[in-house]
Design brief:
The chain is about 80% helix and about 0% strand. The chain has about 180 residues and is an all-alpha fold. The protein has one domain. It is flat, with a radius of gyration of 19 Å. About 30% of the residues are buried.
Length: about 180
């Protein structure tokens, strides 16, 4: 999750420059939807991770309910949001639908095949990723600022108590030269 959130943060913050490198002026505005779509993609990946336990337990007969609810949410939100907001409405609908699918699959997966996920740590990863992205977008940071915000992502987690003692020891070993 930490790697995925770091990539999500970087793509969201660097979207204007990535889009400019990959496209022409006609498509530059598309960079505005990248954060919503990347966070939506992250929610979709999390949805797939949650479905693994259900598949292992061979209890997939209700997966269609979760995905059906997600599809209904997406269609409903698209009908409401696209006319006034265009591509931003479509991207927001996608993000919400995938988040609903993740939450629904999480509830179902925990009923079928309980896994003791570290929810506090997952929440920290998400909150920091969203926070850094929102900060960068609100301040309309230049390229150097976007790179800096993306780079400090793992450091921001440190004072929040994200890292386990063993992870801190391994990180120190990477930074401290062997004696």
């Amino acid at each position: 999750m930490i790697f995925l959130a770091a990539v999500t943060t970087a793509l969201s913050l660097l979207a204007p420059w990535i889009v400019r490198v990959l496209t022409g002026p006609r498509f530059y505005k598309a960079s505005e939807v990248v954060p919503l779509l990347v966070f939506g993609g992250t929610a979709f990946i999390a949805f797939n991770v949650m479905s693994i336990g259900i598949g292992r337990a061979k209890q997939t007969q209700f997966n269609w309910v979760v995905t059906g609810i997600g599809a209904a949410v997406d269609i409903g939100l698209c009908l409401m949001l696209i006319p006034p907001y265009g591509m931003m409405g479509a991207a927001a609908a996608t993000l919400v639908a995938y988040t609903v699918m993740f939450l629904g699959m999480t509830v179902r997966a925990q009923q079928v095949f309980h896994v003791g996920y570290q929810w506090r740590r997952i929440a920290l990863v998400v909150v920091v990723s969203v926070g850094l992205t929102a900060l960068g977008k609100a301040l309309d940071v230049p390229l150097a600022g976007a790179i800096a915000l993306a780079a400090v992502y793992p450091l921001v987690l440190l004072p929040l108590g994200f890292y386990l003692p063993i992870e801190l020891r391994r990180l120190r070993a990477l930074v401290t030269p062997a004696r």
